């Protein structure tokens, strides 16, 4: 018998006009939190230790002692919530050797680094990704396992860069994963370093066509909020195709923050309607909740994620 809180969740979602789909990932995660409820109900009455009783006595005598203890608790909470900070350590082969969906989620929060030829280093945090599973995925370049000269990197070792042109003009950057012909598309970055250079590149997206130049001043979150935009801003082009991210000197990914599951929004991929309703409706795009650099928000899915986050905060 389903927990009453899950029924309340479904009711509240339906009241907002959102269709509840069977095996909805958000609902599945919601159901899994019942385990926390069961554990909390089994907790025994807490009996304070002698040291804690002594600490309470110290608090009564010394107000500064209470302040020190409170500060410690706050710091400990921050460490547990944020999990980790940027380390500047390059990610190795083992990081990419995982399923396409796990890689797409795992890349969120990591830092894409571009070393320009005789130039500065540009950095951006990955905030949005998309999965292309190969095989039965009709939206994938490797649908039904077909191999062409263009999509060969999708069948190479996990962590291989796959660059292709959209509209014959703009580069898009993908990373191969486990699975025949599976890859993750990088959709958006949050600029961290080299914004001035990114601005120049965005103002001159096609050096071969001076008429395309512009003087527009882009806001920071507008520089890389799209798969083609991020490639223009970081000068990612076909010369990087088939390079290995674990040892390339021109493009690599560094460890960053680990984004908690309850802050990842799962949504439909963008621009794959021609693949048919079945594959166009699959939730294979992932982005960081409330990040301004995301290319396109899905407010309905965000509502589900926020409700689950609120539930976890109250009952865990």
From TrEMBL:
The keyword Transit peptide does not apply. Keywords: DNA damage, DNA repair, Hydrolase. Pfam families: Pur_DNA_glyco (PF02245). The keyword Transmembrane does not apply. GO terms for molecular function: alkylbase DNA N-glycosylase activity; DNA binding. Its EC number is 3.2.2.21. GO terms for biological process: base-excision repair. Gene3D superfamilies: Methylpurine-DNA glycosylase (MPG). It is an enzyme of class 3 (hydrolase). It catalyses: Hydrolysis of alkylated DNA, releasing 3-methyladenine, 3-methylguanine, 7-methylguanine and 7-methyladenine. InterPro entries: Formyl_transferase-like_C_sf (IPR011034), MPG (IPR003180), MPG_sf (IPR036995). Binds MBD1. Binds SSBP1. Belongs to the DNA glycosylase MPG family. Hydrolysis of the deoxyribose N-glycosidic bond to excise 3-methyladenine, and 7-methylguanine from the damaged DNA polymer formed by alkylation lesions. This is DNA-3-methyladenine glycosylase. The lineage of its organism: Eukaryota, Metazoa, Ecdysozoa, Arthropoda, Hexapoda.
């Amino acid at each position: 018998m389903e927990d009453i809180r899950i029924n309340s969740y479904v009711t509240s979602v339906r009241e907002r006009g959102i269709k509840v789909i069977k095996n909805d990932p958000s609902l599945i995660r919601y159901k899994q939190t019942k385990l926390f409820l069961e554990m909390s109900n089994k907790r025994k009455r807490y009996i304070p230790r002698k040291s804690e009783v002594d600490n309470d006595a110290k608090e009564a005598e010394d107000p500064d002692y209470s302040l020190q203890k409170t500060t410690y608790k706050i710091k400990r909470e921050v460490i547990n919530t944020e999990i980790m900070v940027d380390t500047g350590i390059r990610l190795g082969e083992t990081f990419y050797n995982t399923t396409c969906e796990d890689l797409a989620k795992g890349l969120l929060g990591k830092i894409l680094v571009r070393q320009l030829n005789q130039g500065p280093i540009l950095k951006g945090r990955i905030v949005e990704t998309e999965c292309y599973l190969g095989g039965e995925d009709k939206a994938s370049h490797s649908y039904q396992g077909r191999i062409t000269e263009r999509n060969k990197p999708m069948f190479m070792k996990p962590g291989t860069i796959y660059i292709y042109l959209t509209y014959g003009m703009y580069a898009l950057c993908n990373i191969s994963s486990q699975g025949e012909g599976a890859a993750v598309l990088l959709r958006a970055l949050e600029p961290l370093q080299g914004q001035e250079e990114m601005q120049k590149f965005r103002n001159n997206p096609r050096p071969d066509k001076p008429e395309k130049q512009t003087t527009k001043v882009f806001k920071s979150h507008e520089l890389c909020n799209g798969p083609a935009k991020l490639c223009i801003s970081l000068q990612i082009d076909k010369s990087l195709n088939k390079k290995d991210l674990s040892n390339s000197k021109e493009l690599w990914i560094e460890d960053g923050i680990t984004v908690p599951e309850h802050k990842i929004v799962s949504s439909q991929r963008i621009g794959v309607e021609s693949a048919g309703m079945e594959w166009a409706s699959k939730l294979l795009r992932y982005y960081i909740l409330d990040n301004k650099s995301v290319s396109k928000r899905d407010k309905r899915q965000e509502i589900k994620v926020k409700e689950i986050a609120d539930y976890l905060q109250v009952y865990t």
